[in-house]
# Entry
Amino acid sequence: MSFAKLDQLGRKLEALEHALAILGADEATHMAIGGGEKRAQAVATLAGMHHRQATAPEIADWMGAAESEALDTDQQAALREFKRQYTNMTCLPAEFVERLTVARMRCEQLWRDLRAKNDWAGFLPALEGVIALVREEAAMRADALKLQPYDALMEQYDPGNRAADIAPVFDELKRFLKGFVPEALEVQAARLGKAPLKPLSGSYPVERQRELGLAMMAAVGFDLTHGSLSVSHHPFCGGVPTDVRITTRYKTTDFLSSLMGVLHETGHALYEQNLPQDWAHWPLGKARGMAVHESQSLFVEKQFGRNPAFWDWGLPLVEQHLGEHWSKADILPHVHMVEPGLIRVDADEVTYPLHVILRFELEQELVGGQLSPVDLPEAWDAKMRAYLGLSTIDNPADGPMQDVHWPGAAFGYFPSYTLGAMMAAQQWAALKQQHPAVDEQIARGDFETVNGWRRDNIWSQGSRYSTPELLERATGEKLNARYFIEHLKQRYGA
Amino acid sequence: MSFAKLDQLGRKLEALEHALAILGADEATHMAIGGGEKRAQAVATLAGMHHRQATAPEIADWMGAAESEALDTDQQAALREFKRQYTNMTCLPAEFVERLTVARMRCEQLWRDLRAKNDWAGFLPALEGVIALVREEAAMRADALKLQPYDALMEQYDPGNRAADIAPVFDELKRFLKGFVPEALEVQAARLGKAPLKPLSGSYPVERQRELGLAMMAAVGFDLTHGSLSVSHHPFCGGVPTDVRITTRYKTTDFLSSLMGVLHETGHALYEQNLPQDWAHWPLGKARGMAVHESQSLFVEKQFGRNPAFWDWGLPLVEQHLGEHWSKADILPHVHMVEPGLIRVDADEVTYPLHVILRFELEQELVGGQLSPVDLPEAWDAKMRAYLGLSTIDNPADGPMQDVHWPGAAFGYFPSYTLGAMMAAQQWAALKQQHPAVDEQIARGDFETVNGWRRDNIWSQGSRYSTPELLERATGEKLNARYFIEHLKQRYGA
Ligand SMILES: [Zn+2]
Ligand SMILES: [Zn+2]
# Structure
């Protein structure tokens, strides 16, 4: 029984992944600072064991033999995902992976140091080294997967996503935003002219904010018997599906920054907590990919948390925990603030896609060789001026040096953020079609209809379908920009 | 280079041990309750990987070949401890270990359930099954190690400890305590007749107790950059030497229960934090054994924490953190309270050894076959009446059912507790001989001389010497009861 061998292998890999996930969450939340070096060694050794076990040559034989075994449909799907994982993990020679890892880690370290010094010239050689290796990587992945090089990189993060499908959708969105960003800013200016922003009172004890966050997490569906909320410097969602660790950080001057972050990570957590448990030790049982994951986090952050209906229910909770009264008219301008800026991670939902499209366009050229790293600051600045009217030419730290993705060799990842936002809007439109009263339910703090739809259509599917297939099955349509555009118009338009 | 292979193996095992240690601490402190089942599976799988890697047949060849390699003295010592670990891990057939594990886990579960119901008859068959297997285990270990059966069991916990050496020391202590327990109780009654016990005021906020605990931990030498203090139901010291996790639990009515527990676990932590780092991936770099470990925890709890000099320095700290003034005359009766009782873990330092000696005597007879499990309640009761004047005949829950050790098949472990207490007293006497002013130093909150002595003589030695050798080298004498008896006389006598 070769499938049985794969099944057994899955249980071993799951145990190592469990350890790595909990060690990762622990490192960011509870590890003593002096424990880092030994932790890094232990994690590297365990990751090496995982890689060796997941890429053993006999697995290819098991997969081949399992093809001709009598498998049920779940097992067939599981076999397909075992193959995908194996191909993605074995298509690069070990020697190359080592070189890439060394170059990547060195470039990330340099980046941390030189970004603070705004030193593009010092950083460029290391980035050039990484990009040269990424081009090699893309070629090897393309060869193994029979895909275009950039598609082969994206395939790691979102199986089935292809640049040829995404580019027209991003183009439509970009054309729309060209006119819409100024419109949204005008609308906002007019509104703030009439009623200035209510300031945050500025003294929100951490423990109260934590209780408010936990109350909202539980209400929107986070199972507190299978997960927890801690503090870390960079918020994340980690751990394992039966014990999801989300984190936030608190500013006592601003309860919204932590709260919106908690809602976002709760969205990631809901996906993990509701994955199919019977498949947990198979690649099939994992979340589909980064874009779908981001669609689930952004759904909770935006379709719930920035939805006016949400605050009908949410504001009494805020008052109960923080002792401060807010009206909807006062809170919405805070959660709907639009402000073009240089930094992607600080962007609002209107301008955020432009940051991503800029990177999507540039990184295809970088991987394809049409753009040289040395020309990146000019290319970045040109797009930044065209898309957002801002220049970064004298400020590479807030231009092409602002994100860790490229020094970290993660090309093909950026599209996931905006694909996630579009998918969330498309999912919301589809479920609202079936359940027109969801806003009223949310206004009562009843999230069950929405979560039921998401459980059936997304969470319970694990990795059964490719990213585009999953979306099309859930919403009845291929990915398109229309629903996200409608969403922005309705929330931010004239 | 066969030693190099052992060295490499050590690094792999260290990574798995690191994961298991952190997962273990995490489980008791931060894991979501619903995460337990998957955690148990992951831990079992990782422990299985560790066992398979640590017992691989080729290791025997490497150890054999390493014998004839040019090794320095550290490497020679490391090889000896590799061999000890390998022999202890391979001397039982895998099939037997599985049977023992099943029997042990079932008996532990039954114990949890039936102890609460005081149901000895229901529990007995499971315990009989475990003891039958322990007799087999002892025979197999004895054969592999060329030791007496009970000594072969003790060898797992304290290499070098032999019942023939320990029994006369325990006998001397038992004879002494027969007269001394009544004397200490009389002294105490007379004192309390003159000055009744100052009651605890009973409202000590957890956060204040935590700060007090952290302040004392740091002062007695706990390195807070390489460890932390959390809350768990059962206090423990876990984690890894570079990141030691100690825990406590708080009663808001009584600050001393948590504080004395924190001091005890800090003693364990100091040993771990100060083990030789260069040997961390070798068995040689580990703490010597349970008795030595307990000598280090009890040293901090008793030679520091129940030492009157300690409170000269400690009471202002209590007042600072808890806002409550205590005089030495008021606090000492609390930390020196003597009260014979049925339960070992609740016992004071005067009566505690009698609980251990009772178990040491009975478990030798159980392993040797002179005593049948069915006769245990009578045998226990007889000794309990003889040693402490208390009967458990109608109360097996607080008699032979009170500890998890026997259902858990951990025979040969109990002596470590009292050996630790005696070793701590013997170490204290030896260092005081060299440094007569240590009490004055402690009264000033200066623990450096004491810790320096312990670092040199105990902590930095790792597993270089057997348990009795380590003590003899540190104190110049074999284990004997004299120093512990002197310690009790001085602290509790007339
Ligand atoms: Zn996210
Ligand atoms: Zn202890």
Remarks:
- Chain B has a mean pLDDT of 97.
- The interface with chain A takes residues 11-12, 14-16, 18-19, 22-23, 26, 29-35, 37-39, 41-43, 45-46, 49, 223-228, 230, 239-244, 280 of chain B (CB under 8 Å).
- The beta strands of chain B are 227-231, 237-240, 243-248.
- The pocket of zinc ion (ligand 1) is lined by residues A 264, 268, 294, 297 (CB under 6 Å).
